[in-house]
């Protein structure tokens, strides 16, 4: 099993255990591949739910640029909702899991 496959299995477990979501493995794989090499970097592979600049990066680089959504309060609400679902007390929020949940939230699976 490749390192990426191992991470995808870990992300699916996180979705199930921490978010109560049964992952669409095909979509999760595509989202993980879309994250590129950042998934292998300890710092870049996670999202800090309390860091405003980190959340702005998720909004600008993922929601606006990748998913093609227009800026507005709905984006911030969606990010807050995903952080709540993932659990505020959970320190390690994997970027691929956050992106997966946001993709599902906006129904943008077709982007992948």
In short:
This protein has 112 residues and is mainly alpha-helical. It is 60% helix and 4% strand.
Task: Describe it.
This protein has helices at 3-19, 25-34, 52-66, 73-86, 95-105; strands at residues 46-47, 93-94. The chain is mainly alpha-helical and 112 residues long. It has one domain: Recoverin, domain 1 (Orthogonal Bundle), CATH 1.10.238. The chain is globular, with a radius of gyration of 13 Å.
Strand residue content: under 5%
Helix content: 55-70%
Main sheet record: 2 strands, antiparallel
SSE arrangement, N to C = HHEHHEH
H/I helix tally: 5
Q: What would CATH call the homologous superfamily?
A: Jann4075-like
Compute the average pLDDT: 94
* Level-2 CATH architecture: Orthogonal Bundle
Count of the domains: 1
Low-confidence stretches: none
End-to-end CA span = 23 Å
Question: How would you describe this structure in keywords?
Answer:
globular, two-stranded antiparallel sheet, mainly alpha, Recoverin, domain 1, 60% helix
């Amino acid at each position: 099993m490749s390192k990426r496959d191992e991470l995808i299995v870990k992300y699916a477990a996180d979705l199930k255990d921490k978010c109560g979501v049964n992952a669409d493995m095909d979509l999760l794989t595509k989202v993980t591949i879309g994250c590129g090499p950042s998934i292998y970097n300890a710092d870049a592979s996670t999202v800090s739910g309390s860091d405003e600049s980190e959340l702005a990066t998720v909004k600008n680089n993922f929601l606006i640029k990748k998913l093609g959504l227009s800026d507005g309060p709905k984006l911030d609400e969606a990010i807050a909702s995903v952080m709540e679902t993932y659990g505020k007390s959970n320190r390690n929020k994997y970027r691929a899991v956050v992106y997966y949940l946001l993709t599902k939230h906006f129904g943008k699976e077709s982007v992948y």
